[in-house]
Amino acid sequence: EIVMTQSPATLSVSPGERATLSCRASQSVSSNLAWYQQKPGQAPRLLIYDASTRATDIPARFSGSGSGTDFTLTISSLQSEDFAVYYCQKYNKWPPGVTFGPGTKVDIK
Amino acid sequence: QVRLQESGPGLVKPSQTLSLTCSVSGIKISSGGYYWTWIRQKPGKGLEWIGYIYYSGSTYYNPSLKSRLTISVDTSKNQFSLKLSSITAADTAVYYCARVIAMGGFDPWGQGTLVTVSS
After folding, report:
1. Which of A43, A45, A103 sits opposite B112 (nearest CB)?
2. Which residues of B fall within a CB distance of 8 Å from A4?
3. pLDDT by residue (tens digit) across A65-78?
4. Measured distance CA(A49)–CA(A19) in Å, rounded
C-alpha cells in the first residue's frame, strides 16, 4: 500500500508571500497526483491534477510540480482566501484506487 | 454546470446500514466518460476514499471498506448511492460524493452530509 505524507503539517505565511507545500509518496505514483484546498465547513476543491494541470477556474498563482515520489504545490503570492488546508491525493489509473495525504494547514503568520 | 447533492439520514443506529444518495445535475451519468465517487471525512480528520462507480455499474472499492460496502447507480434518476453495513461510531463522518476527472482528480464535490452513528 502506498502511503502519502505531507510537510509541513502547518505552514505560517504572510499575505503576499510564497507558500511551498510538499507531498511525498512511499513509492512512485508517476504523475498521478492531485491537490485540493479545503476551507472550514466546505467541501474540498480540486486545484491540480496529473501533478501539474490546473483544474478549471483555478488561478494561475497555484502551480504543481513533481513526479514519481516527490511533489510540490506552490502558491506564488498568498491571498487572504488561500488560508486553508491542502491535501494531496494519489490515484491509480488501473486498477482504480485512491489515497489522500494527511494535509497541510496554511495559516496567517 | 455540474452539481452534486448528497442526501440521507443524519443519524443512524449502530449495527444498521447507512444509505446515502448522490443526485447529479448538469450532466447525464449515462453519457459515460466519468466515474463517480464517494469520500468521507471523520470529524477533525483527513479525507478517506470510499469507492468509485461507472454508469455501467462497474465498481471499485477501498479494500478497508469492501466487505461492508455497496455502491450502485440509477441512471434513470441520474443518481448513485452508497450502502455501508454494520456501522459503528467509527463511521461517523461527513460523506461527500464527487465526479472523477480522467480517472484522477475529483471535481466537483457535493456539499457533504454529516452522518452520526449513535443509539
Report:
1. A43
2. none
3. 999 999 999 999 99
4. 19
